[in-house]
Amino acid sequence: MPRAKKFGHQKRRLIRKKTSVCVVSEKCDVSSSKKKIEKSKGYFDYEDNFSAESQSRFVIIDLNMLNDIFNNIAKCRYCDRSFCFDVAENKSSRRGLASSISATCKYCGSSHGSMTSNSVPAGYEVNLRFVYGMRCIGIGKSAAQTFCALMNLPPPPAKFERLYTPIFNALETASSRSMNDNLKVEFSLVNASSCDV
């Protein structure tokens, strides 16, 4: 049986002259990311001062710095002494990135503690926001664990995937509200234009 393919024989290829002219415009050179950034320039204000009154905000703070702040501005209400507080984290009460922090007076032993995040039906707000942020940038649990380890933060919530459900429910609710609002606007515009005719 003869060979099906002849070796050493090249196919003839049609070489066309390039007749199309590339039109260069300013809009072709701009990437879609740059367009999105330009579109949202006024939307994000990174120079905004964070205040606890406006809404709940999250910052990363070193416990030693927090201890210094307490000692410089606070007095114990029971023994009326200054520079007497020890700020510590109760590691056994960690719930993902939410921790229990207590300030204890060195002299009289009185202490006051609190969790570092508000409680929401799905768990703690900081954990929910962390999982949402990781989802938004396209990374999951293992990358979140690496991030927390590199930043010297507590480990992320153990039940990482369980927090997806409330996030998806909130997104679904927000999108359906937005669609309903847009439909109402469209119907009002259509009704207004039909009355004009």
Automatic annotation (TrEMBL):
InterPro entries: Mutator_transp_dom. Pfam families: Mutator. It comes from the Eukaryota. This is Mutator-like transposase domain-containing protein. Residues 59-188 form the Mutator-like transposase domain. It comes from Trichonephila clavata (Joro spider).
